Protein 1
Amino acid sequence: MADQFSEKNPAARGALFLWDLLVSPTAFVFISIAWCLDLGLGSLRAFKADPQFWMKMDSVPFSQWLRESAPQLWPGSLWVYILAGLTWLMVLSLLLCTANWFFRRRKRYRGMGEVLVHLGFLLVFAGYVLGSGWGTRVQNISLGEGMETEIAALGLRLKVNDISVTRDQRGNDLDTASALTLMDANGAVLKEGTARLNHPLINGSTVVYPNGNSTGARVKVSVEGGGQLELGQGMKAKIRDGLYLSIRGFLQEGGRWGKWVGPGVFLTLSGEGDKSFMTGYLGLAPSLRTAKFGDDNLTLEGISETEEAVFSVHRDPGIQLVLLGALILTLGTFWALYGYLARTGPND
Amino acid sequence: MDNFTLLTHYAAMALYTAAFTFALVNLRVKVKIIDRLATGAALAGLFAQVLLLAVRWFVAGFLPVTGLFSTLHFLSIFVMGITVYFLFRYGGKPLLPASALLALIALWKGGAGQMALAPLTPALDTPLFFLHVATSFAAYGLFGVAAIVSVYRIASLSASEHGMERRMLDECLYLGYILFSWCMIAGSLWAYLAWGSYFTWRLKGLWSTILWFYYSGVLHVRNKPGWQGRPLDLLAIAGFALTLFTFLGLSLIFDEASHPLK
């Protein structure tokens, strides 16, 4: 009936022609050839221009990179825009091809494996779009044992309870296992566990994974009439409501910076929202030990070297879709393999 | 262990050299004893390689597919394994000289790598790594044999005594693609657990994706009338060239940052 209708109706015939063109494997092949050429040549060119290009791209979700970094690299980033366009075209072709199979070509389960592969890929792509559009990546958070930090971009807090470094016979670091507590911004525990290589701490769409270890320093400061504070690099310690102290930098023993002599530490006093009020210096030399920071008298009690674990925290809201897509894709390949072996059995 | 590795490695190379020579002579003179010697040498070479893999696996406690030596051994096992399978299933004896030569080149190149078994670093200590590497090299082996079959077809040489060249090509492409899909999935899962992201913009990963999409395209057209014959053969040969570039070329030209592990 539909075919009879389309034979008589030029518009329907045209639509059918367009549909057949879009769902044809040949169209997919031409798009994928263009995609491969663009990515292949573009990636080599980008790598030659800047070997750190990939590190920068991997450090933020793709959409953020496209929005913030790609315009600065123009026209060197043209290939990425073309790649994004071709990927959407390829996905459209796959989507229509899959729909075409369901509505027009389906004969029981024949070809189901291939369709599952298509569906799996489409889900992976949908997950990637979600992750690149609404994901967040915070990298290189360095924390020592007992330290806790706020990850403002994700509304989380991360605490390191214990660090254990595995080394080879020559003393090279092989792995750093850290017992972690992941909390929400109010301090409620979301997940506790150990993160080490290939075994990150996963909480839903958030993954905390180790990035090696580093040597850091820890500073003890007493506030006159207010107790003692312990500070590590990248940490903020609260002096009182609305006032925070953080480490700006260190002076090693024997080091000088203007009138300051090491060992000592530059501390920044800030308010809410990282509004900085002042930076001052506290040294271990008796004359530099105490200084006024705003209204408070601070005294340096000690500086100690600490072993710190480095982490990256990624939130990818599309990861569940990606995992489901990967599962369906794998099932599809098994189904396709079974179908192929059944069709080409020993008696065939 | 090192002596055993060296001995078995060179034994496999010697046996594949013999298989190559006998199979080449047999293509010309067709003498039964030479034919049997070629097949026997190929089987013995494959046995030596499988034995080496099994012993190293047992000694190391993990599937040894780290480093150039081990991976190229793995590749040649699959090249010869699929050739031996074709030999018995489709009468693929004419394939033997080319496959033995490819396996030989892989072993010769692999000999330049570190033969000693290194302890497994924690970064590689995951079943996903072994699945990722094993399936990728199995796929590379199948893509390699697909290219050999295509070269035969283009040169109008018979690759099968029963005229099953097309079937052999199809099998290599189809099974190779499925294995490579598993490699991509295992690699992505591993990357997610190790680096918090299943897709990284590193050269090796990008070119592996290109390879995957390339063979996706080949599979889409392999049964289309317009792509039969020479176009399909050229696609299979270009595919293997792309495979070699992705596996070896990138590492040689752009050593730094080509893979997330570096």
Note: The CA atoms of residues 72 and 126 of chain B lie 21 Å apart.
Protein 2
Amino acid sequence: MAGILVYALHYEGAFNKNSLGAVAEAARLASELGTEAHAIVVGEGVSDDLAGQLGGYGAAKVFKVEGPEGLSQPVVDAMAKVMTDNGHDYALFGGGLLGFEIGAGLAARIGAGVTMEVTSVSVDGGKLVAERPILGDSSISESRYKGKGIIIGRLNAFEVPASNGGTAAVETVDVEFSPWSTKAKMVQRGEQRGADVDIEGADVLIAGGRGLGKPEGFDQLQDLAGAFGGNSAVAATRAVVDAGWYPYAAQIGQTGKTVAPKLYLAAGISGAIQHKVGMQSSENIVAINKDSNAPIFEFSDLGIVGDLNKIVPKLIEAVKAKKGS
Amino acid sequence: MKICVLVKEVPDAAVTKRIDPSTGRLDRGGEKNLNPYDTHAIEAAMQLKEGGEVQVDEIIAVTMGPGSAVRALHKAVSLGADRSVHLSDDALAGSDVAATGYALAQTLKRESPDLVLLGQQSDDGECYTIGAVVADHLQMPSLTQVIKMDVSDGGLRCERQAEYGYDTVQVELPAVISVGDAINEPRYPSLKAIMGAKKKPLDALGTGDVEIDASRVGTDGSQVECGNFKAPPAKSAGLIIEDEDTNETVEKIVAWLDERKLI
Ligand SMILES: Cc1cc2nc3c(=O)[nH]c(=O)nc-3n(C[C@H](O)[C@H](O)[C@H](O)COP(=O)(O)OP(=O)(O)OC[C@H]3O[C@@H](n4cnc5c(N)ncnc54)[C@H](O)[C@@H]3O)c2cc1C
């Protein structure tokens, strides 16, 4: 049986959206291959009820493993065992941090081929073929697997259907974790940091990235948001939040918030996929970036190729003047 | 404590990258440089050494790559590594991520490091993955995308941003840690360090020196076959303004916003 096993990430009783998309994609591919899609859930005290919900997205069976959540190596142990015992040929991940870590570790463990950032998967000659954009998305490359294959999807690559309400059979699996995988311990998971900035309800979001050059760059963006007045706020990319320039509560993207304001003005932001997924539904996207090849220009409605240090101060004055008129 | 830092030579970010149609591989000609993320890994090693919380005896830069990769090692040494190791062999050409990680792990085994550090991504290809592959072969705990790392309880206390907020993870040594670029601000090498870099010890090794099973590396030993390159679907781009006269640019932006009632 050339079955497909999907890792389903969950937090506080709910599954990650990308994991649900991966389950649905695996179900579609499995039916083309004439096999089944299964899912695996690792966690402490996960209920059969929660695990079984994956059946609604197409999992024929869910393997449930008691173990630590949020760390990759215990999941590698669990997936290697389940794949070996059940003869799965493929593992599919919905993208995100743990997908990268687990997928790569699993490839090493079971001697499989691995492809990351996959945007589309198809069946050819009874095997899976994955497509992956490379070289800054300027080209797409096809991956074929000699034996077992591990496919890590790009964020939002796989559509998430509504659950059909079905439930899957849940099988509890005992896993003996390898000695090294118990040497990393979660001290705190999912901590929320920084002041409570409310960006989700704003109509105008002025977002800043590393192109601001220094934390003080955000003062300028505050002035610009102030010039727009009304319901406007300032947001940030992960690069600057990680660097401590702006609070996490205002981070847009995969590991931050998803927003859809009327206007999203991005200053000094490259437009990485993990950022894009958080703001692509904005009604109007304006980007200021000095690099004409920055990916953000590919999905902005108005792109300004130039130095934000020259443009933003003048824009503040012009918006103020316009508002005053 | 002995720290090995994995480094990689990558095409300069400023140079346009392309696929060589005859081999189907990335064209690695042109300007090359040390992968910028790796300079953060070297800096993290230096800060552990200088921090005084643990005794760091040696920092060793390790790379796998063609002859030219020596320059990346020199750069790593100029940034603080005490010596370097270069794994280079024709048999390694065409290795995929899993095969590369295996070959690097075999090279590292020879050094028995207490800590392996690397940058979380390279400018030219597979991202976020090599650390986990290496860790599995070395049977060490691993964590990727770390943005803060402190010595604590005989191990390392690491922080990173994950899907749901920040994770704090305590990792026992020996371990493999990949770091993000927010972890530190790498120092500039001194002129003296640059001049002295070529004189520091450099071990040049082939697959035979580090017990690499040749059937597990190179194109034949790789489990993924890549090819059939094609252009992505064309995207409908928005309006682009090149800023030449900033007053004029700003006028255009305001007009655009005004037209859409956004102002
Ligand atoms: C698992 C995972 C999850 C992630 N989650 C998120 C997330 O939730 N949100 C997020 O944002 N990112 C996330 N990232 C990170 C993401 O991949 C990018 O690294 C990040 O978005 C880059 O931020 P940036 O655009 O500010 O910085 P950079 O990519 O460094 O871009 C800075 C840009 O500024 C431009 N610039 C520089 N100077 C100037 C100037 N004077 N004037 C104009 N332009 C200038 C440059 O040309 C460049 O394009 C995640 C990554 C991973 C691996």
Note: The helical segments of chain B are 36-51, 70-78, 97-109, 130-138, 191-196, 218-221, 246-259.
